[in-house]
Design goal:
The complex is a heterodimer. Chain A contains no helices and eleven strands. By secondary structure, chain A is mainly beta. By secondary structure, chain B is mainly beta. The chains are: A mainly beta, B mainly beta.
C-alpha cells in the first residue's frame, strides 16, 4: 500500500501478557517513529529509528517496552508484562529522509486495551 | 524545552464561515512547526508545515497557517469551513535534538455546524 500500515488495529490483552505491535512504513522511508496517544491527549514520542539504528529511545516509559527494526523497514514494538496504564493507541510514523523539514506520515494506529 | 499550547479544547463554527484554530509555541532556536488533523479512529494526517520563508503557509484541503514570530503563534485558518472539516487538530513543533521527533499540543476539536 501507499501509506503506513499498522497491525493489528485492535488488541486486547490481559494484564501481565506480552504484546507485539507491527508497523510497515512507506517503502523507502528512512526514518521511523513510534508514538503513544492516551485518550484525549496528543501523541507522545516513544522511540526513533534511522534505517535499522535505534537512535533515540528516550520516550520509552519503562524497560518493559522494546522496539526493533532489524532490516531497516518493518518495525515491531513489544511490551512485556503489560499493565493497565499501557492502554493507549500506539502510532507509527515514517518520513522519507532524516531532515528536519520532512513531514511524518502516520498509520492508523493500534488501539491496545489491557484488562 | 520545546512546547506548543493549544488554548481551546473545542472550536465551533458554522459552515461557510472562516475558522481559526490557535497554537502558540515555545522554542529555543528556530521553530519548525506542523499542523496535523485526526479523524475518529484514524492516524494523523499532515496538513502543512512552517520551516522558513513566508509567514503565510498554504497546505492541504484549503487550510493555511500564519506564523507570527513576535507573538510566537502559528494559527491554523480556513476561509470557508466545511462540515467535513470537523475533526481533531494538532499543532506540533520539532524537538530541538537530532531525531526530529515531534512535540504535540493537546489538540483542538473543531465542530462545523451545517
Amino acid at each position: 500500500g501507499a501509506g503506513v500500515s499498522q497491525s493489528p488495529r485492535y488488541k486486547v490483552a490481559k494484564r501481565g501478557q506480552d504484546v507485539a505491535l507491527r508497523c510497515d512504513p512507506i517503502s523507502g522511508h528512512v526514518s521511523l517513529f513510534w508514538y503513544q496517544q492516551a485518550l484525549g491527549q496528543g501523541p507522545e514520542f516513544l522511540t526513533y529509528f534511522q534505517n535499522e539504528a535505534q537512535l533515540d529511545k528516550s520516550g520509552l516509559p519503562s524497560d518493559r517496552f522494546f522496539a526493533e527494526r532489524p532490516e531497516g523497514s518493518v518495525s515491531t514494538l513489544k511490551i512485556q508484562r503489560t499493565q493497565q496504564e499501557d492502554s493507549a493507541v500506539y502510532l507509527c510514523a515514517s518520513s522519507l529522509g532524516a531532515g528536519y523539514d520532512q513531514p511524518q506520515h502516520f498509520g492508523d494506529g493500534t488501539r491496545l486495551s489491557i484488562l | 524545552a520545546q512546547s506548543v499550547a493549544q488554548p481551546e479544547d473545542q472550536v465551533n463554527v458554522a459552515e461557510g464561515n472562516p475558522l481559526t484554530v490557535k497554537c502558540t509555541y515555545s522554542v529555543s532556536g528556530n521553530p519548525y512547526l506542523f499542523w496535523y488533523v485526526q479523524y475518529p479512529n484514524r492516524g494523523l494526517q499532515f496538513l502543512l508545515k512552517y520551516i522558513t520563508g513566508d509567514n503565510l503557509v498554504k497546505g492541504s484541503y484549503g487550510f493555511e497557517a500564519e506564523f507570527n514570530k513576535s507573538q510566537t503563534s502559528f494559527h491554523l485558518k480556513k476561509p470557508s469551513a466545511l462540515v467535513s472539516d470537523s475533526a481533531l487538530y494538532f499543532c506540533a513543533v520539532r524537538d530541538g535534538g537530532a531525531t526530529n521527533k515531534l512535540i504535540f499540543g493537546t489538540g483542538t476539536l473543531l465542530a462545523v455546524q451545517p
